[in-house]
Fold these 2 entries.
Entry 1:
Amino acid sequence: MVPAPGVSAVDGVEHLVRSHPAVWLRDTCPCERCRDPRSGQKLTSVLDLPVDLSVETVEESEGLVTVRFAPDGHVAAFPVTWLLEQLGRPDGDGRSEADKRRWTAGALAGCMPVADWDGYRREATVRRRVLEDVLHLGVAILRRTPTTERTVLDIARTFGYVRETNYGQLFDVRAEVEANNLACTGLAIAPHTDNPYRDPVPTLQLLHCLSNAIDGGESGLVDGFEAAALLRAEDPSSFQLLAETPVLFAWSDARAALRAERPIIGLDPLGRIREVRLNHRSMQPGSLPAGVVAEFYAAYRKFTRIISRPELQVTFRLEPGDCLILDNVRVLHSRTAFSDSATGRRHLQGCYVDMDGLLSTLAILCRST
Ligand code: FE2
């Protein structure tokens, strides 16, 4: 066990306990009066905690530290290892920029996170690495998956729960005669995140390549957190404007009408980048307050120009059997124009999954690998 930062072996367990607010320790008490022994869920309310709590006595024996609280005399016993773990745990849920490895095209080019489907299925360590790459880099590619339709759902279910939407469990990305979405044409598509018109937005997207025997149709990726961090460094007021201005995104067809109002750059309560939503196709500028329109568009242009910088954009070609897994509130994806030919078509199938399912699968894998 590695002591938490700021806690050395000579500090002693009593110092460790007393360095924590009594209310925090009491609220984590694992006794059967405070927590359900089976689920670990709390049986108490914050109103059950005395407002003038303090630590009265601390005793350590055989790996357990026993704390007696004043004024009510409640006794809590904590495993010492558990206490140290709590102190060493990074803040938050791993979703903000604080826990990400940001990248540029050059940084990612030499270490594209790729794994073979067979190895992924057989080895827990490979699965763990792939899911960690999605969490920390926002992207991973599985290669040599079966090129049969609906395989994308099988891949998604290895780590999460498929989010069914008005598009169904999965969606096809291919040129269609009467497309209800520009993704289903041969037009170039600029870097974007998917479905910003939903709340909650799907936090992960899978794109599985079934065929790609055509010219064009190259895929591009940009780390939206890196682009947002560059905007913050180069033009803090534009960054702040994009983080504070609600933008309406909408999409509709004959059977669905979807709307969500969120900023382009989402921050967590500590001001750290947590989400990027950018999709010019579905942005509805009419919702912007009149007084900020000009400033907003200047900031939006700056951000889009940063995203367009070649040094930020990784370009590659998806081959049949490749499955791209993307953090859809961080990594923007794009494609170049293409046209199907007599000899081949470009056909991808995609689906949406949520990051919480991936995080749960990863946490369970970490217990055994
Ligand atoms: Fe897309």
Entry 2:
Amino acid sequence: MTAQKTPWWKQAVIYQIYPRSFCDSNGDGIGDIPGIISKLDYLKTLGIDAIWLSPVFRSPQDDNGYDIADYRDIDPIFGTLEGMDELIREARERGIRIIMDLVLNHSSDEHRWFREAKKSRDNPYHDYYIWRDGDGVTPPNDLKAGFGGSAWEWVPELGQYYFHQFSVKQPDLNWDNPKLREELYDMINWWADRGIGGFRLDVVDHLGKDPDRGIMKCAPTLHPYVREMSQAAFRRDDLVTVGEAWSADIEQAKLYSNPDGSELSMVFQFEHMKIDQIPGKEKWDMVPIDFVELKKIFTRWQRALYGKGWNSLFWENHDLPRSVSRFADDGRYRVESAKMLAILLHGMQGTPYVYQGEELGMTNYAFRVEDCRDIEILNMVRERRAKGWSEEQILDAIYRKGRDNARTPMQWDDSQNAGFTTGEPWLLVNPNYTEINAADQVGREDSVFSCYRELIRLRKEYTVFLDGEYEPLLEDDKRIFAYRRSNGEGSLLVVANFSGETIKNPLLAEERGSRLLVGSYAATDEDPSVLRPYEAKMLLSQNR
Ligand code: TEU
Ligand code: CA
């Protein structure tokens, strides 16, 4: 390694909070900032270094805050600006940084800029958005919006359409306007001045677009814009920046996470998350997971970004189903499964992200349609009913892929509403909270929580986590996920049985002379010649 010091975020673990579902302090059924402050000690116990906070800005909540009406204020359902400052301070005191979620591709249609923009074609804010003339009958082209319908919405007063890639209440901002870009950079600096530790950039790949040519993302303007933003706002205060980029392939990711710091610290790429989806179709159109392919994806990313970029590591976020339900067993072997997924991911190179409740092994929930709240689900139900899908197909799709799975309230204890609220929760609580909850797990050594805490601690103790080179093992095995990471100090062996059967352990010889750091079963009842259902082990051998 060079003499340059390692940035803090390369040895950090980041915890994502979905504020609405984390902890409610005032009984209105919606999680809030004082609620988060009250749980900082819990997060300190877990050992995380930073919190990525999904949006808490002022918003009509059409897409749960991903539709921002004022980038410089906090929504009253979450608290106040003073409360936010207090959160930043209280977190800092516990060695935790706050990462804010910047939604810069679009604003809310209730943002002052958009209200102004709609007034007239020569309003100074008109060009902050993307408009095309038309007749109100035929939109400029066929582009479709993420949450249903055309990407073009007619505004009769102006005789123009505006462009929106997500809901109609999320008009796209016009990044080709330098004044808009300056205004956004000022806002980012304003937050950094308040002591923010970094930013997550929503749909960063969509910032460069060319709708007239049918291009919604990754237009040639994209990377120049990201570099400009980085120059103007990110190169200060050791900020960490992570872009969400569903379209990112390895070459794109190398640009975004270039070690020269010209763009971002890292991106979320989603190749492993598209594994159960028919290519070119929607997330609801599913195929069984090809396990060997899943391993190949991880291997490719681990190898390609080694020394050339930086990976973000995750199984879950607020848009994805729960990982135990999706990739492993959320029934009999739920605990072992959750630990297995954690061990596999945390042994890799990159910055791990833990999504609230993942550290408890929280699961999906079989929603009824009328209990769903997510705009994406509700839109899918409408579209798929029209296409002739049965109710059974629809419920199955929601159960397996719906975003509300991740958004059920955090399960704190076994009291009413899982200790999340004293009121009526905005989204129902998963009834398994009596069994799966933080109060039960924090002090218990064999819990999923303790496994996460141990992994987070270990990552700071051994340099092999930071810079060990990745070597896949048993690549064609259909049940075992195994790899080794090695650097000058030692070598880490991770082996995981991704099945519900007890199988022979083909890596027994490799394990000799190494020490078990953490496993998904208690070490004491270990029979080394086999791997039990969802058994994962992380072993270390140190060079002398
Ligand atoms: O998600 C980006 C995005 O493309 C989503 O539509 C994604 O495909 C979908 O959630 C998968 O189920 C980001 C945010 O993470 C998401 O919560 C927002 O709804 C979206 O942007 C719009 O801001
Ligand atoms: Ca509240």
